[in-house]
Structure formats: structure tokens, C-alpha cells
Amino acid sequence: MLSYESRPGKQRFYCSNCFSPIYVTTNNETEFLRVRTGLLDGDPQVEVTGHMWVCEKPSWVVIEDDKPVYMGNYVGPPDSL
Question: Where in this chain does the record put each CENP-V/GFA domain (predicted)?
Fold first, then answer.
């Protein structure tokens, strides 16, 4: 696996064979590991707790649950949805 710091405190990890992005970690959000789910073959069997960067989603994607929605980064519990 290869990695580099894309900006201070943000580490990106890539496959050493095909260079596909795998996951990202940040120093200021240590409770999160951002996995690139497009690389997964099956159900990752994790609980989705919210939706980040909704402002960037394609128009055809519909969020069909009642999980918290964040237009950008997670910034703590939302005041209201």
C-alpha cells in the first residue's frame, strides 16, 4: 500500500499495484476512516450513520433513510434536518 499526505493532517492510501484510492485518514477526524466503497465487491456490513457531502451527489441519487445529512464535512450533530 502506498500513501502520501495530500495536505497537512490528511493521509491518502492507494493500492501499490493499480494505484486505486482505498481510504483517507485525517488528524482532526480520528473517529472516521473514509473508505472508497467503489472498490468493495460486497456488502461492507457497516452501519451508515449519516451522509456527508450531499451537495456533491449526482441528481439521480436518492437518500431513502432518515440518517443525518451534511452538505459538506461532518461538523457534529445537526441542529435539525
Answer: 6-55
Does the pTM exceed 0.70?
no
Helix (H, G, I), strand (E, B) or coil at 79: coil
Question: Which three cell numbers mark 33?
Answer: 476512516
Dihedral of alpha carbons 45, 58, 27, 67, sign: negative
Cell of residue 8, nine digits: 497537512
d(CA 43, CA 60): 21
pLDDT at residue 81 is higher than 50: no
* Cβ 52 vs Cβ 74: under 8 Å: yes
C-alpha cell recorded at residue 17 = 499495484
Q: Which amino acid is at 10?
A: K
DSSP E strand stretches across 1-81: 2-7, 10-14, 21-26, 34-35
Backbone φ and ψ of 41, nearest 5°:
-90, -25
